[in-house]
Amino acid sequence: MNFYLMRAKVSQEAMNALVERPEDRLMSMTKVLQGVGGRLHYYFFCFGKYDIVLIYELPNNVSAAALSMVLTSSGSVTEVDTTPLLTMQEAIESMQQAGAAMGVYRPPGRTPADATKAPKPKRKNA
Q1: How confident is the chain (126 residues) per 10-residue block, as mean pLDDT?
Q2: pTM across the whole model
Q3: What is the CATH number of domain 2-87?
């Protein structure tokens, strides 16, 4: 299972409904996540650009896209921003893979001989 962070803006219509009749949306979100094969970890209301923040697990990106489609097509949320998250073990594996690939990649403007060297820092004028 993969972890995801979703930030979304609640539509004006949905927010009006929540203000008129406050309700706990946790169970509804838990059920929709189960419907696409996932598991909800956290559901927060917040303020700022986004109104809700979710942290959840899903089997793959297809399921993540399906969740976004369900929520936006219902009209209850807009401006959905989904971020795939890495566990620390996955991050370490990524670092190891990146380290192995460093000898293969040649940045633009560098010859193969100096491709693995870090760029020289620019000097500041005194």
Answers
A1: 97 96 95 96 96 97 95 94 96 94 83 64 66
A2: 0.80
A3: 3.30.70.1060
